[in-house]
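TICKET #2291
ISSUE: user wants both folds in one file
ATTACHMENT 1:
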Amino acid sequence: MGGPGEPPEGTPEGAPGGGEDEYRSVVFDESFVRAARLQEYSAQERMADHAPAVRRRPPLRRGLTRQALLLVLLIALAFGTAVYMSLRNPYQSPAARRPVEPLRMTLVPLAPQGAVPGAVDTEALYAHSPAARYRVGAAGIPLPTYRRTAHFSDSQVFAALNNAKQYLVRSSLYPEVLTGQQVRPVRGLIDGDQLDQFDESFAHPAADGRHAPTGWLIRFDPARAELASDRIRVQGTLTAAETDASTLEVTADHTFVYALRPAGAEAGTPASLFTVRRELHFRFDRDDLRTNQLQLVVSSVQAGPLSCAEDSANHLRPLLAGQTAKEGGPAGTDPYATGGVPALCGVLAVSTQPKV
């Protein structure tokens, strides 16, 4: 038998012996080929149990895979949540905003029946008047108990009431507003669609029921009167109601009592009380609630002691301690004229004055 690397019948004749042939390991002679065992399957064997030459692919699964089904479910859940939130979202804007109405205002001067009572001690004036039990400043404008409405949430009703309160505080209690130095604190709360009317009222005041500054805020003629005390007495109510699916209305009815003295008066000069009753109607749509603004649609003011003969559209010109109303009343009213408001004047009841 030959070696491990030699053909079964030995080295072929004529071939160099040993390891001198460099192709010996790769060249096969005839005896090597005959010694190799060859086996070929017959046609019948190939058709029987023999393994197929080509591997079969697993059949395709019909329908969605688990991952695809999970993705579809997540998309459907997200879409359903978006639809639900859009229906429940209280801040969605209406398709068309309701037009903003111009402010309608009336001012009724209340003339005293005699001389205006006064005293040096402002606290004594308050203590002997119907305002004795009134609260001081913003504490006299508490927010009422509130609840959600059919189309507005608790937070939206609160926002409407709180914005109305802020307007009352800024327009009736801020010293810089009362003295006529500023209007910006009030203007900042007005709906943008009412600003033209607001600005026109201060640029060109008129007693026409549309452009009187004293319909927007309380301010005294700085040449006539000044605050004798910053402890202004206040009492009143706030109520909120839904008028339709897109509008909240707040009604404010408050009485403010101011202690006044002559402008530039020296210490020891008697002061007197001045009373203003304001009934204001505010309107809020969803845009106003979002921007913390408001629409003032009705302003009804009664104030005294005032002289009916004087124009109080631009500034209130109060009658002070010891003064009496001038004779005469407001200018005559023409019932045939349109677009204006009738001239009004009232009498200040004696019971409203302090007993000093």
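ATTACHMENT 2:
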Amino acid sequence: MTNGERITRLARAAGIATDGDHADLATLWADPAWAFDPAWFRHIAATPATVLMASGRAVLANLPAGLSAEAALADPVAAGLSVVDYDARPTLYNHQLRKRECPFIEPLTPQTAADIERRSYYGAYKGVTDILTKFLWPEIAFGFTRLAARLALSPNAVTCTGIALCVAATFLFGTGWFWWGLLAGFIFMVLDTVDGKLARCTVTSSKWGNILDHGVDIVHPPFWWVAWGIGTAATAHPLSGASFVWVLVAILGGYGLQRLIEGIFMRRFGMHIHVWRRFDTGFRLITARRNPNMVILFVSLTAGRPDLGLVAVAAWTLVSVVVHAVQIVQAYAWRARHGALASWMEQQP
């Protein structure tokens, strides 16, 4: 898309009118010769009478009603505008993506287009996530995201392709075809990263797409763990009887408790449990969610003991539940002594 189209999509996503006569309202002005992270657009849109400057030029401005762009941008200070200087590398806290950074701004030219594409992609990445998503997926998913954009695929089309692979992985695990199941699951997990990045980079996020994506993320892991346990019946070391039942109770019960604690924390403290302190952010890398659990299962399968892998997942799930329980107890204690909680990321300069 052209940069003008991208800016228009950003405005529509923010609920800003892009046509008609609105002389009696504030104006959000953007220079299409520059590419910028959507975080800057949201920040300036939410900050009246402010201009964002880069290399001495205005890139974005929130102009009061009745103030023309020509007059304001010729001398922003004289026009009463607050100036945000990108060259000083100010940082913003992105609540949606749970990270603090200085979002990118670059002049858009044929020479900078490839770099802007890459920076746009990495700008859409969450700052707090699991170890695979943070360190292994990025470059793999970047290739898929670029291809999907070139083919004009919608994020929902990518999500639906991933769902098909997710279902296939479940059946493959259940029949003992663990390696093929891991392959299908691996591609699904990458596509689970791609659909979100594609939506953010192309500004095509939708309410139902978000519900579909996150709904599948929440629902499918228990089916994988049950199928994996059933699939061990086709190996020399099957999980069966009481041991199988207790392993599933630990995994499924622990998974539900983790999600419940996370939901309570969000409701009571207004933030994700993983962004309160540095420890919480670090623990999110390895907490018993799908991707870290799949690492455990991969290692166990490599060792020829998929049954012990599921036992290890059960044990790690219980450890993670205990850590989550301690975290929320500490949060209540902190609030009782010191007042409202604040994310360590928001406290950065």
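RESOLUTION: both attachments delivered.
EXTRA DETAIL ON ATTACHMENT 2: Strands lie at 27-30, 34-36, 50-54, 57-63, 82-85, 92-94, 99-101, 105-107.
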